[in-house]
Amino acid sequence: MEKVTKIIDRISDIFALLAGLAMIIGVSLILVEIVVRSLFDSTIYITQEFTAYFLVAITFFGLAYTLKEKGHIRLTFLFKLMKTPKQRAFLDIYASIIGLIIFGIITYATWDLFLTNALSGARSMTITKTYIAIPQFAMPLGSFLICLQFISEILKSVIHVKTGEYPVEEPETEALGR
Known about the structure:
The chain has six helices and no strands. It is mostly helical.
């Protein structure tokens, strides 16, 4: 089980790097647009469309990593009511199962959207006429990756319950360097 969690965590790390790369490319595209407009009184036409595509990729590719690092907004009042680490681990399992179900539905819905547009050959209504399924693929892929990360989180909690070794809990204010 630990090997599976390490593999899933590594995949989440890789897609976090891809999200960062998409952010750098999007910002660079915006900077180029600013320079072209300021110096040449012109435009490169694709900036708004492609930065929107990059924003979707950034969001969906970063979901799993953010879950792994416990960076999503958490309502900790129930967690704090649990007296033992074992109870907290069971609450984590429960919450992760709920998240897995929700993102399973989102994965299905975004896959259906992607597949519909891929099969119909739908294109954007902009100058680039981009096959819309290409940037849309980030949605089902990112949703599937967070499903995998939820499975990893469930497995980690199961390992903690089985071994009786629980991670040291850090206060919410110290999570992610806050």
